[in-house]
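Dissemination and training. As part of the outreach component of the grant, students in the summer workshop were shown how a complex can be specified as a set of sequence lines and then modelled as a single object. The example used during the hands-on session is reproduced here so that future cohorts can follow it. Participants entered these lines:
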Amino acid sequence: MIAESTRVSCSKCQQSFAPHCSEVIDAEADYMLVDALIDGSLFSTRCPHCQSNLVLDVPVLAYFPNRALPIWFLPAQGRDNEQNTVDFHRLLCAFKVSHPDDWDEAWEQLFWMIGRGDFSQVGLYRRSFPPLAVCCF
Ligand SMILES: [Zn+2]
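and obtained this result:
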């Protein structure tokens, strides 16, 4: 399991904290995290200052080994293409460091990009290969 922490600000009390959230998921090693990604619980957290339940808006990179196109990127919401590119490369770097033997340079240009509203597509993916758009930054 690879866990990266990004600092976020609580929408209720405005204090910042580093939530526990896996931004890089190895689907083979951490299938529980894929389930959490699909049902949205991956993004649920509690503010340590005021105990409010919050929904995190963080990007996620998921790795599905043994697939033709194994890198999936779910951008954070409300970001522009430039921010998505920065997020993507930050997560891809973290992945590269932890999976040096699996690494393929082509993944920097070719990967699935799916929106958070398309989580049902991730579920479909587990049964068959979905016709999702390929996004190249
Ligand atoms: Zn708070």
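Residues 123-137 have pLDDT under 50 and may be disordered. Students were then asked to discuss how this feature might be tested experimentally.
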